[in-house]
Amino acid sequence: MEIIDGKKVADQIKSEIAAEVEKMVAEGKKRPHLAVIIVGHDGGSETYVAHKVKSCAQVGFTSTKIAFEDTVTETELLEKINELNNDTDIDGFIVQLPLPKHIDEQKVIEAIDYRKDVDGFHPVNVGRMSIGLPCFVSATPSGIIELLRRYEIPTQGKHCVVIGRSNIVGKPIANLMMQKTYPGDATVTVCHSRTRNLKEICLSADIIIAALGSPAFLKEDMVKEGAVIIDVGTTRIPCSTTKSGFRLCGDVDFEHVAPKCSYITPVPGGVGPMTIVSLLRNTLQAARQRQ
Amino acid sequence: MEIIDGKKVADQIKSEIAAEVEKMVAEGKKRPHLAVIIVGHDGGSETYVAHKVKSCAQVGFTSTKIAFEDTVTETELLEKINELNNDTDIDGFIVQLPLPKHIDEQKVIEAIDYRKDVDGFHPVNVGRMSIGLPCFVSATPSGIIELLRRYEIPTQGKHCVVIGRSNIVGKPIANLMMQKTYPGDATVTVCHSRTRNLKEICLSADIIIAALGSPAFLKEDMVKEGAVIIDVGTTRIPCSTTKSGFRLCGDVDFEHVAPKCSYITPVPGGVGPMTIVSLLRNTLQAARQRQ
After folding, report:
1. For testing the chain A interface, which of B108, B122, B126 should be mutated: the one with the most A CBs within 10 Å?
2. Do A4 and A142 contact (CB within 8 A), yes or no?
């Protein structure tokens, strides 16, 4: 059994991106520039945005944080998006979700020029991914694919079971895993709350991607010997022994499942660290396409 | 065992559309207007386009056929698309595929205003479908969903196996069948050329959608008792007893599979007749959105 070290892979990719940026700068090109819009003061969102800004600095990107109070109107936000769409110095930008209830998230996502949509949430990018065309793939599915690639995990003809059908993880990772490429080319089953005999389906899986958001849901009796387990869950569980007062818990009962696996991602330190790296990779790609 | 009569359902939907159009006209609205671009003289394409034009007449739509020789340049074709995008009288239009090799099909598809893309091939429509937003769904997957609906076939929690992962059938029908709606909400497995133990997977299926284009591929020993079988295959097989010199053969060994099924679509007369109806429905929807 090998633990997939997402932190290590993420650090390695950051080094590769940093080297690429220095090469671009040496060639007289400008540094990739990511802008991040944040609305209001949600604690989680502020932490994520701070991480994103810090990661930009680590790899030599320019970054701009644009903060609005949660009283901002939809029109004001859309105006800012339009401004960023037309700002030739900005290679890519994201609007940190969730947004306050008075703002239509889907409208905001669709207002972003898909060529700058480094979060990969715009329908054009979702559609291009499904068709198999070049596009920005959203952070979590992209991170999973990169982990499979870096660990050289065979996927062709394997049975990949995805638990969860969210628009940001389940559906896109299922789409990617069925594409005629590596990593991919797998037989893909998408399971969800309505699925019957989930246990039986999981037992037939060579690869399980658990993305349902239910702590320690996947038990050892649902996993066949030698399976590859990717755990996307990150539920906050109250915890008296950590400074923050909580700990992150994955969708997999790691302690009991791990001994049966060929590969498994831990939580934290598995898929999580890869998500910001995916955003950085998309931004680098956007910058390359614009220069 | 009940045979799903696609011809009958298609005729019924055409009557419904015709009634809707007469209502629109009585309210002083204009008739829905579909334009069809055809390039060259491919026999299959000319037949399809003729059927589409004829179907428009049957339901009271205005239609315009725009024919180019296969010497047309990509630029000329893109100019015509731009003209149709801006023509307020045209509610929707399609470019009949395939196109000659010197024309980039994907570029042509993406040039169509997605609000007039009644073929549902534009990445925006593909992406919106995956996300679960209102969109134009392409003809074959849309036709399959409508057959399931009209025959009131239960799908929630059922195991739906899709054989084939093409961009026009396999991937979109898989996406639709996993959406949290009816018809849909199924556990979905996508199989393809790389799939191992296909027989075992098919035997676990409550619904099989065969869309691989291999005549009589699905045999009785791959189907469990009471399964629902949707046959998307339409391979032309040489045949001495028909006037055309060929007959259409589905992906299912109908004669032997049918007795085991609860429902099955025949070929011809199953999914086929539904495809043009899907195009008409999309055009009606486009017209409604524009008035």
Report:
1. B126
2. no
